[in-house]
Amino acid sequence: MLIKRLEVTGIRNLRSASLNPLSSINVLYGENGAGKTSVLESIHLLSSARSFRSHKLKPLINSEMESCVAFAEIDIPGAGYQPVGVERFKSPATPGIIKIAGQSVKSAAALAENLPVQVISSDTFKLLEGSPSVRRQFLDWGVFHVEHQFHPVWKNTQRCLKQRNSLLRHGRIDDQQLAVWTDEFVGLARQLDGFRAHYFQQLVPVFEQTLARLLGLEGLSLGYYRGWDKDTDLAEVLAANAIREKEQGHTSSGPHRADLKLRYQSASAADILSRGQQKLVVCALRVAQGYLLSQLTGRSCVYLVDDLPAELDKKHRLALCALLEELKCQVFVTCVDHKDIDDCWSEQAAISMFHVEHGVINAKTITTSS
Questions:
Q1: Residue positions in the annotated binding site?
Q2: What is the pLDDT of residue 216?
């Protein structure tokens, strides 16, 4: 169990709330607008210093407060349970505060490393329907947690890309300087693509096995596009596009254009599958990453599942809950009526129930049946 105790202050309508004790499976139930999703946001804040619903800070913070705080005791590898806290402020001029085991930390990457979090919500449909950047973020989440060299290579790639684009935007380009940045960009791009391609090869069979548990769907394929032609070296691609890039003012090919392709019967899966099928495919992708993380590192992640019953019938709710329980991970689930998922867990499952009403959270003892 990654999180032993959670305290929230000033996140949306949660003025002051505490969840203790927590279990492997934690169910938050109550009417819409009660504050259930805000609890999930607080956990995500402890993993990335931001909400999964929006990058904007002001809506996240209670209207009567100037900052919000999420605090938890988190099981950190090699250190046991340690206090982790994040405070964010409404004022853009005030930097956020991150503390891990009493020490101030500047980078949110340290949060993500200590608390891997997966989110399944209405926004996760963007994995199928959204822009390539959403799928790159999904892919990079997995690579980040299994390849220690990924993050510095990714950061340096972004730095090179920014410098190269800046040169391309100038009316008069120093070709020699552009060549220096291009050479470094190409080298880093190859490394980044190598990390992504290797992870993708490992993810595909796990995804296929997970999807088979959730949905009998023959003909669905998952492909990886690296951001430039698979048969041509990136240096050659950039050289061939040099004139066009100078006209457009940006780098047209590279790992920043990478994407995952989900196709069903030779068409985009998002255009063919029903809403319920799409949710199951997205769940399979998210759960597969959890299984792969466990296989490759021995670690588990926290799953935040917002409105689990939505668009899933009883059969598929049971299947999804069984997968999450088998992962031996920690799960936080929201729903309006806990009875919709009471019998989705095994008799052996350790479950904590919390009723959320008008921003107030109360632990409940509920007898479940299986």
A1: 30-37
A2: 84
